Each structure stands twice: as structure tokens, then as C-alpha cells.
Amino acid sequence: MLVSRKAPLNFARRRDTRYPIWRMSDYAAAVQSLLARTAELTTRRKFDPEHMRILAHALGDPQRHFTAILIAGTNGKGSTAATLAAILAAAHIRTGLYTSPHLSRINERIRVQGQPIADEDFARLYFQVDDTANQLVASGELPCQPSFFETVTAIAFLAFANRVDIAVLEVGLGGRLDATNIVDPLLSILTDIDIDHTEWLGPTLTHIAREKAGILRQNGWLVTLPQHPEANQVIGEVATALDVAAINAAEYMPYKTTQPDQLQAGPEEAPDSPGLRNRYTILFAGAELQIDSPLAGQHQQRNIALAIAAAVAISNQYGYEITAADIARGVADTNWPGRLELIPGAPAILLDVAHNPAGAWTLRAALSDLDAAQPCKKKTLLFGCLADKPADQLAQILFPLFDELVLTRPTSPRAADPTQLATLATTLRTKSQVVDQPAAALQAALAITPPEGLLVIAGSVYLVGELRPILIQKAPE
């Protein structure tokens, strides 16, 4: 049984003899220690927000020292969070952004004014959280060490406390039991909900939607868009029971398209905005507002609309000054790589972290648009996914679109065996080869893709995150 909460623990002057003193600023040691906690997604573990509250209280309740916005959903929550954070920053509101997972470095999850926190800050805050958790476990206040995500969330809360005006927080998994859900949000945003993580959230869309709707608050505000009727029903029931004021972001969907083919990348692109973009017009306060977002694909228009609706609600309901110009500038400045990200070259390379059926269908639609605008000689897919993903569904959606596949193993203990993926490719009559290491797989995929072809890298955030730095270094300026 957990004992009652005590006053916040103070470790400012305590020296822990279990570790050498230099480790307090050792980023590599912090990351290595943190990665040892990743077993929560490979083993069954009961998550309880009360454990996160106990940890946060011992740290001084940092989540009470900034204003929070919570974003939950299956797809699009990261894009929505990044866009909203960029809009708030454009309006000169000091903004924090917490997202997951990261692409290349763990600091990417915690940003202030668009910049990841420094290595030394991450290390210092990690060991502060770790020391606090160790004492809570020793005293019996916590039954076990915090999970990887709980720990990083605590680090984010400490990084944002008294440092940002508003922190945009992407929920990690579900909503109701998520570590981020101990904040008292200014408003809650629900992006599109689909089937994913059924082993944690339940087998049906109804179960999953109810978990996601757990971020709503009594008499709070909700920003969302109409979606699947089953999800709509649950969201409506929860919102009504809590007397939530709902805002429909549909009015910020495109009024007319500025660039008929939003996925066309060619000579008409401005030198400072290469690659794929979303360009269209919305009606805003009775006037036309030009939207130019680096987030490609028609699906992103829903995420952008949610971010704009949230910014308007923040301005109207809470007195922050956010203008149409701030919205346009923030949308244009959004940085959210690895989502239909085109890296120019010969061949061109398209990165997308599509890792569930909804994401795979989005990638498929984008490829169809790209083919219509700019047909390529050959398409190659470099693919790897995690073992807990529905590989058979992903294969059926994506594999037949490509001339050849290179199948690999993302660097993760949860990675799927690429030889099993090759069996799926054979069933779908798609030519494939297995190259176990991602870097070698990239070279193999480049070798079989002609200069006028297209190489797509997809299936896992881990895979895109590992290969993107290599590709960015080689990309032409």
C-alpha cells in the first residue's frame, strides 16, 4: 500500500554516493540509464496516474508552474502539437513542446521556443528525477521505478516550470492513464482516432476512443473534428457528461486550394521552401488567409485546422493576443520532420513514419498524388517495423505499390524480424531482399533505385530516425 504524500523532496544540496559527482552533467550516462527503462512496452505493466502524481509532488509539482494543452489521438497528434506550438511562438508566447517518440535524439521530445533542451539540462534533470524516484521507492511511496515515459515526462515538466507560458503536451499512449494527464489543461485536443495499441487500449474503436477522451475535464474545452461515427459517439458522451464546451475545427479546413497539386515538388518551389508543402486558403475572421505548411499530404489539413482552432480558442477564451499573421507565420514555420518529408537528390527520397494502417493509407494516398504529378521510373521501399504492429496489414497496403522492397530491422528490441516481412512480400508477389542492418539496407536500396526513381523509407519512427541524419548530411543544399 502506498503511504500518504509528503512534502516535496529537496535534493539541491544532497550528494548521492552511489554515483560519481561528474555524472550530474553526463548526458550519455543519463540516456543510457534512461534506456534501461524501456521494458514497459514489452511487458505487461499496470500504469496508474497516481504514481506520476506522487513523483511530481516530490519534485515540487512542476506541472502547476506552466499552462498546459493536452493533445491525444491515434494519428496526427504530433503534427497538431508542432503546428500549434509554432503558432504560439509566432505570437511571442513563450512555448514548450513535448512530443514522442523522438527521431534522432531524445532531447527532441522536450523543446522550448522550438529548440530541444541542452544536453547538460537533460542530464541534470534526469538525475534529479532518478534520485527522487529512488528515494520514493525506498520509502514505499512508489511501488516501482517510474517507466521510461513517466521519467521523460517528469523531465519535461521540470524543464517547462516557470520557463514557458504555455506547454503543448502530446499524450504518449491513450489518454486516461497517460503520464501527461496529471496536468490541468487549458484545453484538450482530440485528433483522429483509429485502431492501434489494442493490447493496451482495448479491442474496439469504442474502447480506444474512451481512453483518448480521458484527457477531457469537467467544464473544460475540447477542440476536435468530426471523425468515425463510433469515435464521435464516445467523444460526445464523455463531453456531455463532463459539460465540456466543444469547438469544431471544420471552419478552418481549406476554403479553396492555392496550389492544385499540393504534393508537387519541382522548379516552381521557392529556394527557401524545398520539397512537399500544403498550400491552400481558409476563411479566417471573414477574410481569406493563405496557408503554406511544410507538412505535406491532404490529411495534414485536418491537423492544421485543429491547431488553428486551438490557437483561436486560446486567444478568445484566455486573452492571449494571436493574430491572423501569427497563425500564417506559425503554420509556415512548423518543424515536424519525417512525415512525408522529401529529400531532393538522384534519386529523391521520401521519409514517412507510417507505422499503423491509417498512416500507411495516408502514405499510399500521397504516393498516388505524387505519381499523378511527377511519375518516376522506379519506386523502392525500404521498410522495417516493430513486432507489435500489424505487419500483414501494412504489407497489404504498401508493398504492392513498389517495384522492389528492401526489408530491414529497426534498431529497437521490439523490432519485427525482416525475414517474416519477406514472407509477406512473397505472398503479395513483390520482389524483396533482406538486409538486417538499417545503414546497409539504405545503401542496398540506393543501389537498386535509378537516379530518376523514388526511394521511400517507412514503417517505423526508429527506422526513419536512424537513417534521416545520414540522408540530411548527403542532401544537396
What integer value in Å does the Rg equal? 22 Å
The number of distinct structural domains comes to 2
Fraction of helical residues: 25-40%
Q: What fraction of residues sit in β-strands?
A: 15-25%
CATH superfamily of the largest domain: Mur-like, catalytic domain
Widest sheet, order of strands: 4-3-2-5-1-6-7-8
Determine the mean pLDDT.
88
Distance between the termini: 59 Å
User: What profile does the largest beta sheet have?
Assistant: 8 strands, mixed
Task: Enter the CATH topology name of the largest domain.
Answer: UDP-N-acetylmuramoyl-L-alanine:D-glutamate ligase
- The assigned CATH architecture of the largest domain is 3-Layer(aba) Sandwich
Low-confidence stretches: 1-24, 260-274
**Strand pairing plus helix content: what structural class?**
alpha/beta
So how many helices?
15
Number of strands: 17
Regarding CATH, which class of the largest domain? Alpha Beta
Instruction: Write down the overall geometry.
Output: globular
Write a concise synopsis of the structure shown:
With 477 residues, the protein is an alpha/beta fold. The chain has 15 helices and 17 strands. Helix 1 crosses helix 4.
What does this structure look like?
The chain has 477 residues and is an alpha/beta fold. It folds into two domains: 21-332, Mur-like, catalytic domain (UDP-N-acetylmuramoyl-L-alanine:D-glutamate ligase); 341-474, Alpha-Beta Complex (Protein-Tyrosine Phosphatase, Chain A), CATH 3.90.190. It is built from 15 helices and 17 strands. The chain has helices spanning 27-35, 49-58, 77-90, 119-139, 148-160, 198-201, 205-212, 229-241, 300-318, 324-332, 357-373, 391-398, 418-427, 438-448, 461-474, and strands at 67-72, 95-98, 110-112, 115-116, 166-170, 185-190, 221-224, 245-248, 256-257, 278-284, 287-293, 341-343, 348-351, 379-383, 404-407, 432-434, 454-458. Helix 3 (77-90) crosses helix 9 (300-318), helix 4 crosses helix 5 and helix 11 packs parallel to helix 12 (391-398). It is globular, with a radius of gyration of 22 Å. Residues 1-24 and 260-274 have low confidence and may be disordered.
